[in-house]
Amino acid sequence: MSERAQVAKNGAVLLGDSVACDAFHETRPLRIVTHAHADHLGGLRKSLKCCDKVLMTKATRDLAETLDESLKLRDASMKTLEYGKVFRYGDEKITLLKADHILGAAQVLVEDAGGIRIAYSGDFRIDETPVVECDVLVVDATYGSPSFRRSFDVNVRELLVTMIETRLRGGAVYVFGYHGKLQEIMQLLRNADVSVPFVMPERVYEVTKVCEQHGMKLGCLSLSTDADGHELLGKNLPCVAFYHMNSRGYVGLNNARICVSGWEFHSPCRQIGDREYLVALSDHSDFDGIMDYVKRSKAKQVITDNYRVSHGAILAKEIHKRLGVSAVAMPRTHGQTTL
Ligand SMILES: [Zn+2]
Asked: What's the CA-to-centroid distance between 35 and ligand 1, angstroms?
């Protein structure tokens, strides 16, 4: 049964006979993109050219096009698929299911002609990800080592909102994070009735607009380059400025600053600079979340994704040891470093 799924050397997650997820593979006529993060878009142009069909959710299509304007995702081979809708290809049934990660993120289920259920979790956070019961599972291994646990006794989301609210009394607060997570924080703040303007550079603004088109309600948004945004930041008025993590070194250096990252396991919040804090909000499950997913999936065979992170082998060993389930890391040698 193990040959029903594998992770190829280039990161393509191969399911059943026809599907390659998250990278191009010359043997597969169907390409699926689970979500719009760059390490899941490998060889997409080639897939559009060579594959019979390229499948993803509408939100993933819109986000991917926004993050890379040179991508054209409206041609004949492209097909958007809603969560839960079955797409038939040959003898196989393919379904995308919601993954709690970023807007549009999906898990993939392939049911083959013999009724074997083959699933790929994609990137996920266990909180609101429905576990797919399956025979063979390919699972994300980002926090696949037992040292990657975030068992904090506080609610990190509430803590983050309170930190931002408190610091707004001193003017603009800068938040640094990755695409998708920044918008999740915007939504958290609006849900908590934080009504100050949100200011952001163009790329973050465009991603935020896509999130609004797909149902998020994010209130007053200003571009940092427009007169409004310029004034808010220039005069240090109460607002929240959202920037990609890559901008951390050169914007808002004299303001309250909050970096949001999953790579923090000791404390939900840690001071890392004069007025700068790191808050441990992740869009991936920690080790316990991954184990919980594997257990509830009832998979008899597990493959850990050893391409996007280097913990696949450790995770496979732990799955076998703790759950008694056969597990292997693929590809055998870790393929690339990740964000
Ligand atoms: Zn991701």
From this structure: 7
**Count of CB atoms situated within 10 Å of the CB of 152:** 15
Ion ligand 1: residues, CB < 5 A: 37, 123
Return phi, psi of residue 272, to 5°: -120, 0
| Greatest Cα-to-Cα distance within the chain, rounded to the nearest angstrom | 66
Which tens digit of pLDDT belongs to each residue from 282-291?
A: 999 999 999 9
Q: Is the pTM of this model over 0.85?
A: yes
Evaluated on CA atoms 264, 298, 4, 35, the torsion sign reads: negative
CA distance linking residue 274 with residue 255, whole number of Å: 10
Sign of the CA dihedral with 308 first, then 313, 314, and 317 last: positive
Given a contact cutoff of 8 angstroms between Cβ atoms, the answer to whether 295 and 287 are in contact is no
Q: What separation in angstroms does the CA of 93 have from each of 1, 90, 231?
A: 17, 8, 54
| Cα-to-centroid distance, 46 and ligand 1 (Å) | 21
Distances (CA, A) of 321 to 288, 301, 331, 338: 14, 14, 20, 26
The three-state secondary structure class of 280 is coil
Distance 303 CA to ligand 1 centre (A): 18
pLDDT tens-digit series, residues 184-238: 999 999 999 999 999 999 999 999 999 999 999 999 999 999 999 999 999 999 9
